[in-house]
Design brief:
- It comes from Nitrosomonas communis.
- This is Type II secretory pathway ATPase GspE/PulE or T4P pilus assembly pathway ATPase PilB.
- Keywords: ATP-binding, Coiled coil, Nucleotide-binding.
- The protein is α/β, with parallel strands linked by helices.
- Among the domains are: 97 residues, 2-Layer Sandwich (GMP Synthetase, Chain A, domain 3), CATH 3.30.300; 108 residues, 2-Layer Sandwich (Beta-Lactamase); 194 residues, P-loop containing nucleotide triphosphate hydrolases (Rossmann fold, 3-Layer(aba) Sandwich), CATH 3.40.50.300.
- 41% of the residues lie in helices and 21% in strands.
- The protein contains 26 helices and 19 strands.
- The protein has a 7-stranded mixed beta sheet with strand order 13-12-14-15-11-16-19, with helices on both faces. Strands 7-6-5-10-9-8 form a 6-stranded antiparallel beta sheet. Strands 1-4-3-2 form a 4-stranded mixed beta sheet.
- The longest helix has 16 residues.
- The radius of gyration is 30 Å and the shape is elongated.
- About 3% of the residues have low confidence.
């Protein structure tokens, strides 16, 4: 809706969220303004400002101390005011101030001028809640309504705390879980986590009367959110179990489920839920937010020029095996889907096997793994080979059978991609060989391996300074730490240092070739941490002839590492230092994720 575009321009909510709100309001037959306030936590004042900007009149917020203008209201009945949506609220020297929901419509009808012909009319605008509250204030039958974030977390908690003194045994969990305030609270927690950009929600109950802690994981770190009275901890867990159709009576075993949040609120996301029994007969809950979104284009994935060129060359091959490796939560699936987006054309048939399906793309045929139904990665891979694929993506190669099928598929004319849980690209080769893969078939099939980590990105509040000689020397030492094993570096280390520094000053320096580094500061935007978002660090190993020879000889990791460096591979730490010099992150974050 054009009226609310101002909210998008002010970054109060995104265009996608506004579209979701509009769709939800249509489906439920409710007012869009109510949906924005109740489900997207948009404050009435923010909506009022958007209305004022659209209608080009003053926004008039609700005031509980507003004095009723008896003289101008004496001939206006409440029913008339409510049905026509305008209300005189003040007489000033400038004219009669009229509160409306749609100033343009009221002006066009000229009804206000007919009733008050001797007055200059000053039109103002407000939200529907504020209009109703003002009508209630002037005509009685109510004292107005709480408008300042009516669904705030503090209000919800205060209502729950009213029952905090109740005995835990007195609360029936199933009925308590369906209570309106608790339902709103769970929805609010999920909505806030999504709006804050959190990846996970942790519910951590404690024995006795100690409160249940709720924490969000954002940018890789956990942060406290709220604490909930102990008397409601069981009902809270039960409510979440009900949302994902888990057994509410089973508390001794871990359970897994999925919440389709669209069933409960106008936000089109899914949550993967895990419940785990913890000490004291309690249950912890962890929810992973799986927000559907468009894959990121490869050009926006922060690849270096060399890595992007090499990667595009690798994935343009008609057949072969390509891996993305890294620990859990390092963005492997995101990267694979960006690659698939690059390859997704009408001429290409792409099958994916995922557990779970986190990102959806048009044109992809995506299969959800279901072990209970016998749908494992290996069985799906066998089916893919009979389904005329061009490209196959496997969420994870966990066992020998799946990996063997992947190699077989790549050697019979298919491009196969998969993820691995390994620390570096060369280590991935050894892991696959240790699974019992034939070194000759594997070396023939392998195209490349991309290792990845996520480092915290500096917030815009970062503080610049000209890098000192000592800082440059430290960065050079760390950058060249792994190059010391290759022949051309050992031949003349000093010349190698100078060459790398000269490149840095040329690429990242100012007109005087001085390099600017940045320091984390902290502001309201980043909650005082100095960091906002994350950036990927990459290590791309290309399967050159020399590396394939290493694989066939079952060489050690160290030997493969030296071969890869000699062939031009940039390590995770080197890529991180390049991003430090670009001002994207700092060396502390690079060191934190590049621990060996």
């Amino acid at each position: 809706m054009i009226i609310y575009d101002h909210l998008i321009s002010k970054a109060t909510l995104s265009a996608a969220e506004l579209e979701q709100a509009v769709r939800y309001a249509r489906e439920k037959g409710c007012d869009l303004e109510e949906v924005l306030i109740d489900y997207f936590q948009i404050k009435p004042a923010q909506i009022g400002e958007a209305l004022a900007y659209y209608f080009q009149v003053r926004y008039e917020p609700y005031r509980v101390d507003r004095i009723k203008p008896f003289e101008v209201l004496k001939n206006l009945k409440r029913d008339f005011v409510e049905s026509n949506h305008w209300l005189p609220i003040d007489e000033t020297k400038e004219g009669l101030v009229v509160l409306t929901l749609d100033p343009e419509r009221i002006k066009a009808l000229r009804i206000v001028n007919q009733i008050f012909p001797k007055h200059t009319i000053i039109y103002t605008v407000c939200t529907q809640r504020e209009f109703k509250a003002t009508v209630d204030l002037f005509y009685g039958n109510g004292k107005g309504i709480a408008l300042e974030d009516s669904g705030s977390i503090d209000e919800m908690l205060s209502k729950l705390k009213e029952n905090e003194e109740a005995s835990l045994d007195e609360i029936d969990e199933a009925s308590a879980a369906s209570e309106n305030e608790l339902v709103k609270l769970v929805n609010k927690i999920i909505m806030d986590a999504y709006k804050m950009g959190a990846s996970d929600i942790h519910l951590e109950p404690y024995p006795g009367k100690e409160k249940t802690k709720v924490r969000f994981r954002k940018d890789g770190s956990l942060m406290p959110y709220i604490e909930i009275p102990a008397s409601h901890r069981n009902a809270l867990v039960t409510r979440i179990k009900i949302m994902c159709d888990l057994d509410i009576s089973e508390k001794r075993k871990p359970q897994d489920g999925k919440i389709k949040f669209r069933r409960f609120a106008p936000l089109d996301i899914e949550l993967r839920v895990a419940t785990l029994p913890s000490a004291g007969g309690l249950e912890d809950v962890v929810m992973r937010i799986l927000s559907a979104g468009e894959p990121i284009p490869l050009e926006k994935m922060n690849f270096t020029v060399r890595n992007l060129r090499e990667l595009k060359s690798i994935i343009s091959k008609p057949y072969g095996l390509f891996f993305v490796c890294g620990p859990t939560g390092s963005g492997k699936t995101t990267t694979l889907h960006s690659i698939l987006k690059h390859l997704n054309t009408p001429e290409t048939k792409i099958w994916t096997a995922e557990d779970p399906v986190e990102i959806t793309q048009k044109g992809l045929r995506q299969v959800q793994i279901n072990v209970k139904a016998g749908l494992t990665f290996a069985t799906v891979m066998k089916s893919f080979l009979r389904a005329d694929p061009d490209i196959i993506m496997v969420g994870e190669m966990r066992d020998r059978e799946t990996t063997s099928l992947g190699i077989e598929a790549s050697l019979t004319g298919h491009l196969v991609m998969a993820t691995l849980h390994t620390n570096s690209a060369p280590e991935s080769v050894i892991r696959l060989l240790d699974m019992g893969m034939d070194p000759f078939n594997f070396s023939d099939a392998l195209l490349g391996i991309l290792a990845q980590r996520l480092a915290k990105r500096l917030c815009q509040c970062k503080k610049p300074h000209i890098a000192s000689r000592e800082e440059i020397s430290t960065l050079l030492m760390e950058y060249c730490e792994e190059l010391k094993h290759i022949e051309h570096f050992k031949a003349d280390p000093e010349a190698a240092y100078q060459k790398i520094e000269a490149r840095w000053r040329q690429e990242y320096g100012d007109e005087h070739q001085q390099i600017t580094l940045y320091q984390a500061v902290g502001c309201d935007q980043c909650n005082g941490t100095g960091y906002s978002g994350r950036v990927a660090l990459h290590e791309l190993l290309t399967a050159t002839d020399a590396l394939k020879k290493n694989i066939q000889e079952h060489a050690r990791v160290a030997d493969m590492f030296v071969t890869a460096l000699t062939d031009g591979m940039c390590t995770l730490k080197q890529d991180g230092i390049d991003k430090v010099l670009q001002g994207i992150t700092d060396i502390h974050q690079v060191r934190a994720v590049c621990i060996k």
